[in-house]
Amino acid sequence: MSEQPMALFFDVDGTIIWYKPGADVDATVATAVPSPAVAEAFHALRQRGHHPFICTGRSLTLVSDKLLSLDVDGLVTADGACVSVGGEVVSDEVVPAELLIDVARRAYEADSLIMFEGSRACVTLVPKDMDYKNAMGVGVVHSVEEFTGMGELRFSKFVLQESDRARLMTPENRAFFDEHFEEFALGLPVYEMTLKGVNKGAGVRRVLEMLGIGPERAIAFGDSENDLSMADAVGIFVAMGNAMPEVKEIADYVTDPVEHDGVVTALRHFGLI
């Protein structure tokens, strides 16, 4: 592979962080960390002049200090809505407030729990009479009025558990969400939605444009539906061994599973570390 500097984009959950089967992901998302081998690989990439980036569905507020301590050039968060380079936020796309309120109303009327995520804050709208354990420690509201009363609504995406999504997706609501949003299955019983046109691939392209690096010198790593858009934005797309079948199908290279440090295997395969 060329010795010119490469830009590399790493998904987090299921790619550089592994959760044991049956683990309570919500309870551990803030404390789970990459393995020492992965951390060392990031440092080695930087030492060789390459540009590693985290590229995650997590919003900026849910990127833990442990992840921020990795040796990276920047972050693509909230499925591409927010891009940070060198510690500076260079783009932060949010869902218009009127759309957010409409989403909140539809979810509340369907008795569906929904979490809104942004670069500054996250909040969960909990339906009436639902017993909810706030494992992630984010803000909680219990009505649409309380949600709209928060002040400026700056959220880039929202997340639903599978059971809540099933209650929400009446034919009328399905048409509404299809019109305005992109939806991604995460390989867990979890779905997330962003505005049309907002995805990891768009975030990757923004970074490459800023760096002056063409897609032929970019590699992306992922395991879930929200990683698929990166494949068209880079020269090489790597699927984890634990990736969803549709992710493996379009990959240029399938590496070891996350629990066996598959990103390290791939980086060695391509001669980057």
Question: What distance lies between the first and last C-alpha atoms, to the nearest angstrom?
Answer: 11 Å
* Principal-axes shape call: globular
Helix/strand order:
EHHEHEEEHEEEHEHHEEHEEHEH
Q: What is the CATH topology of the largest domain?
A: Rossmann fold
Characterize the largest beta sheet: strand count, sense, and whether it forms a barrel: 8 strands, mixed
- Total separate domains: 2
The CATH architecture of the largest domain: 3-Layer(aba) Sandwich
What structural class do you assign from the helix and strand content?
A: alpha/beta
Report the strand count.
14
* Spatial order of strands in the largest sheet: 5-4-3-2-1-12-13-14
| Uncertain residue segments | none
Q: CATH H-level name of the largest domain... which superfamily?
A: HAD superfamily/HAD-like
Average predicted local confidence, pLDDT: 93
Beta fraction of the residues? 15-25%
Helix content: 25-40%
Radius of gyration: 18 Å
By DSSP (H or I, 4+ residues per run), the number of helices equals 10
Identify the CATH class of the largest domain: Alpha Beta
